[in-house]
Write a structure and sequence with these properties.
By secondary structure, the protein is mainly alpha-helical. The chain has helices at residues 2-5, 9-31, 34-51, 62-88, 104-123, 126-137, 142-149, 153-170. The chain is rod-shaped, with a radius of gyration of 40 Å.
Length: 175
């Protein structure tokens, strides 16, 4: 390891020949994928080449250090692979949600219904149309309508009932 730390390529080559099978076995056990294990094994020896001077014999054997580096790199790869797979997975859980916007057929049908409703409203006498508009679009109660229109409560109720019957008849075909 001292020779690797000093930059001797022959020392790294010898270490690779002696320990690559062990490193590969550890990495393969963690990753369970031959291609990834081969790549991580090369990464381990690249890391050892760069960090060999940090090895301290008093903290453990070269073999223990190699196994620790191999295991750490393999776990890093496994986590990286899992993260990448989560990012790349299609989001099927959202695929079945209907679109918030309506399709062309639905838009056309809504336009036709709107047109029929406006036409039916236009066919009402002006005083009935005004009562319906205030009741439904302003949210006024019968008594509030009577105050606003300055009419007796019974008259307002009659106008609303008459206009609702006419609208029902005019719009009978609309769902």
């Amino acid at each position: 390891m001292r020779r690797c730390g000093a930059g001797e390529q022959a020392a790294l080559s010898g270490l690779y020949d002696q320990a690559s099978h062990l490193v590969y076995s550890v990495v393969l056990k963690v990753l369970a994928n031959q291609a990834d294990a081969e790549e991580v094994t090369l990464d381990v020896f690249t890391q050892i080449w760069r960090t060999a001077q940090s090895y301290e014999a008093s903290k453990g054997s070269v073999t223990a250090w190699l196994v620790m580096v191999a295991r750490s790199r393999a776990i890093d790869r496994m986590r990286s692979r899992a993260t990448r797979q989560r990012r790349e997975e299609p989001i099927f859980e959202y695929a079945d949600f209907p679109s918030a916007s309506s399709g062309p057929e639905q838009s056309a049908a809504e336009g036709q219904r709107r047109s029929k409703i406006l036409s039916a409203m236009a066919d009402l006498p002006a005083e009935q149309r005004r009562a319906v508009e205030l009741a439904f679009f302003s949210g006024l109660s019968h008594s509030e309508l009577a105050e606003r229109l300055q009419l007796p409560l019974g008259t307002v109720k009659t106008r609303l009932r008459s206009s609702m019957l006419k609208l029902r008849e005019s719009l009978a075909g609309i769902a």
